[in-house]
Amino acid sequence: MPAERNDPAQSTAAQTAKSAVRAVHGRLIRGQRVRVLADHFARMIPRACTVLDVGSGDGLIDAAILEQRPGVSGCSGESLRTAFRRVQLSIVS
Predict the structure, then answer these.
(1) Do 90 and 75 form a contact (C-beta atoms < 8 A)?
(2) Phi-psi region of 75 (alpha: psi -120 to 50; beta: other; left: phi over 0)
(3) What is the C-alpha to C-alpha distance for residues 31 and 36, in angstroms, rounded to an integer?
(4) Which of 36, 40, 64, 70 has its CA 20 to 30 A from that of 29?
């Protein structure tokens, strides 16, 4: 007989599977995506300029770009608390 939809054991198993998928994605895919995007954008950015990143999310791409291009400075319009923890930014008013 199939398990019922509200079966707590099935719900726990599904939550465990989702957590495992998130962990693998975070370690493998997300890191690679950040590196690829940062490499791409770092090649496009002129030397000694300031970049305004709108929609910066967690600041990982910004941090990776600034590691590759030390002469570039970054300003973030969103998620400043998170971004300030990851990269040194200045606020443009």
Answers:
(1) yes
(2) beta
(3) 9
(4) 70
Domain layout of the chain by residue ranges: 8-86
- pLDDT of 40 reads 93
CA gap 74, 50 in Å, rounded:
5
* Cα maximum dimension of the chain: 67
pLDDT at position 36 is: 93
Mind listing the pLDDT tens digit for each residue in 62-74? 888 888 888 888 7
Angstrom distance (rounded) from CA 59 to CA 65: 10
Structure tokens at 15: 């939550």
Rounded CA-CA distance 92/78 in Å is 12
